[in-house]
Amino acid sequence: MRICRFFLPGEGARLGAVLGDDVCDLTASGRPEFASLEALLCAWDVLGEGAAEWLAEQAAHQPRLASYRALERPAEATGAYLLRPTDTQEIWAAGVTYYRSRHAREEESHGSGIYDRVYAAARPEIFFKATPNRTAGPFEPVRVRSDSRWCVPEPELALVLTPQLKLAGYTIGNDMSARDIEGENPLYLPQAKIHRGCCALGPCIVLPDEFDIEQPATIACAVYRGGRIAFEGETRTDQMVRLTSELIAYLGRDNEFPSGAVLLTGTGIVPPDSFCLQVGDRVEIRIDRIGALVNPVERC
Q1: What does the alpha-carbon distance between residue 184 and residue 181 come to, in Å, rounded to a whole number?
Q2: Predicted confidence band at 276 (pLDDT cuts at 50, 70, 90)?
Q3: pTM for this model (two decimals)
Q4: Spatial separation of the C-alpha atoms in residues 219 and 206, rounded to whole Å
Q5: Over 104-161, what HEC string results?
Q6: Could you report the per-residue pLDDT of 208-242, keeping only the tens digit for each?
Q7: 18, 2 in Cβ contact below 8 A?
């Protein structure tokens, strides 16, 4: 089963369950667990291992609202539409978890050696990525920094975690990055990574029973410019050198997440050095068994 958030005219943000091709309005049940994703993630910790089964049972008793496909539309369209799948959760990210990323970041930092050491170190790179207001949902714009000349998308598998850092599901993430700023000095990483529109999530959250991390999934990215593909690439989740359980464990060290959290797991897709996102581009990221995240590109 999948979970989504959507906007319903006259009602506002709602929490939904995707059953087959249909969406059930969980919020309409009036249950406090379905008031928001934050409320559901908090309930998930209380329910424990039976959370997914309980959720499926509750969803089966709710009326079908609309087809999921009908919600996949920009906000400017008439009717209900998908929102980003999270609400109050912080977004964090892991870096240098694929060999391709390690190689690219060594090149952009002019062979400093720092990313070689991170790639092989026991401790992974974990960094803060975005607040909710800096995060776009499906069809909302991601943004390139006004002071960067080399911005790229970073397609990633994202983990949706409860306050106790239990894995509730998976979604797609776009960790927008200003490679020239990051490469100039590793201490500039926050400026390269955190700004308005620096992250996108969506389109939904797939529960672990439908996305087995042990079964490799293809992550694909295409950037369209003027109706043509300006860049495309792909990788697979089994190319990640870190276990997701390891990344979650390090994220939780001496930290707390009362609303839950999202953890991006790193990218294995790196465009060539000659490529830079431009205003008007459209980024499409697809992950097997999750779906597609589509975002236009604008400037900060």
Answers
A1: 5
A2: very high
A3: 0.94
A4: 15
A5: HHHHHCCCCCHHHHHHHCCCCEEEEEECHHHEECCCCCEEECCCCCCEECCEEEEEEE
A6: 999 999 999 999 999 999 999 999 999 999 999 89
A7: yes
